[in-house]
Amino acid sequence: MQVRIAHDAPENARAGALVVPAFSDTPPSSATRAADAAVGGALTDVVESGEFKGKLCETTLVHAKERPFRRVLVVGLGDRSAFEPKLLVRYAGAAVRALGRKGIAEIAVALPDEAAKDPQACAAAVAEGALTGAFETSLYQAKPERPLAMREVAILASGIDEGELERGLHRGVVVGEAVNFARRLAVTPANDMTPTHLADEATKACNDAGIAIDVHDAQWAREQNMGSFLSVSNGSAQPPKFIVMRYMGDQTSKELLALVGKGITFDTGGISLKPAERMEDMKYDMSGGAGVVATMWAIGKLKPRVNVVGIVPATENMPGGRATKPGDVVKAMNGKSIEIINTDAEGRLILADALCYANALGATRIVDAATLTGACVVALGHVNAAIVSNDETFAERFLACAQPTGERFWRMPLDDEYGDQMKSDIADLKNTGGRDGGTLTAAAFLKAFVGETPWVHLDIAGTAYLDRASAWSAKGPTCVPVRSFLAIARGLSKA
Ligand code: BES
Ligand code: MN
Ligand code: ZN
């Protein structure tokens, strides 16, 4: 799909449909007024009749066959006072999905008057929303049931600073493509999405974006003493891969941001086998890793002045004759011994070595993302991801960067006492601390491998994929946390 800026006034837009905004309160934006006049007041009629209230992503379609745009789709934006540019992701996504389904391939999207305050962010949001709205999960269907016809989305500039719109458009397109890339990796089933395949996709993406990449194998991991990472791969016939991507955007700086993503391409639980119900969802257990790969691609395209390393430990978690057993003791890269109580708590085992490795590379800040605990789904559901940190200032900075992206996080505590639940009788640590506070004991485990480096941990178990579609997005993988990863990289960069 192509997204571009167009200069036509709304009433002259040439397209299969003209998309205009409507807040739940008056007065209408100028584009909406112009469209209304062009269709003889039909939009006013719809509003006055009470059948359209302007709620966020509510839509109504009016035909106008005499006009160059042929139809007007009014899309609700909710209360004017609550407007933020990020809502335009949903606005554009809802338009693309509603009209694309009807076989309309070209649309012209008008911006609300509010867009003049931050045209760059608004253009970025529309571009991102248009691209991500068009994403479908029907990758393996010979003939998708309800294909989206959308090919071209024109953002109507009408009087808004054009340079700003173009800059926003460029960023929005890269972010949207990165989001869809992460979603495609995540939704790909585990028989295709093996650690080797994930590494190949990462290699292709890095080559495309000019990012340095090393794909390390099990032998290399043994030389690095990554006994914790390797213990998870023991039961699998698929070789593990340890993926390291490097972008040096600021040679003058010693600062290095490490993005670390859990790359379990399938989580059966291992010997501590999971029940069958919903086990198919465990193909999504590499969502954090997919997010890191897609983010590195986008960073290569956007070129912020910041140094970033992306680290993805990738392996399956399988039972098998060589699989790790409950009670086994393994040793991580930093020398700490771990008693494995439950082989289904494997995410923290692979992250332990990845976090050590981030420090070995000289990371000055670390952000990790992982579909780590079912407890996080219980605590926060599918709305917020958990954020846990060892550094107040960095956590606040991360949250401030993430807020405008629309990805939501809720801070959870990390008192030392959570770590007490992770003490083993036989080893330095054990890998599970019981049911209570499961998200926090998992975080306390990870903390033992980050040292003093300011670190933010994101538990995305409840937000990485959704069972329900929305008006603006297909169901399935969400790509959380790609937008926030990009936002923190941008936030730390020198302009
Ligand atoms: N990948 C799962 C966590 C998960 C659960 C993600 C549900 C998404 C939806 C993780 O590896 C896991 O199995 N965690 C265990 C840990 C437990 C054994 C301490 C869990 O949460 O049950
Ligand atoms: Mn597991
Ligand atoms: Zn897992």
Tell me how many strands there are: 20
Give me the CATH superfamily of the largest domain: Zn peptidases
Reported by name, the CATH topology of the largest domain is: Aminopeptidase
* Sheet having the most strands: 9 strands, mixed
The total number of structural domains is 2
How does the helix and strand content classify structurally? Answer: alpha/beta
CATH architecture of the largest domain: 3-Layer(aba) Sandwich
| Rg measurement, Å | 24 Å
Describe the structure.
- With 495 residues, this protein is an alpha/beta fold.
- The chain folds into two domains: 2-179, Leucine Aminopeptidase, subunit E, domain 1 (3-Layer(aba) Sandwich), CATH 3.40.220; 189-492, Zn peptidases (Aminopeptidase), CATH 3.40.630.10.
- It contains 15 helices and 20 strands.
- The strands form four sheets. Strands 7, 8, 9, 10, 11, 14, 15, 16 and 18 form a nine-stranded mixed sheet that branches. It has a six-stranded mixed sheet with strand order 1-6-5-2-4-3, sandwiched between helices.
- Strand 10 (263-267), helix 9 and strand 11 (307-317) form a beta-alpha-beta unit.
- Helix 10 (347-360) packs parallel to helix 14.
- The two termini are 29 Å apart.
- The model has no long low-confidence stretch (mean pLDDT 97).
- Zinc ion binds at residues 264, 267, 285, 346-347.
- Manganese (II) ion (MN) binds next to loops.
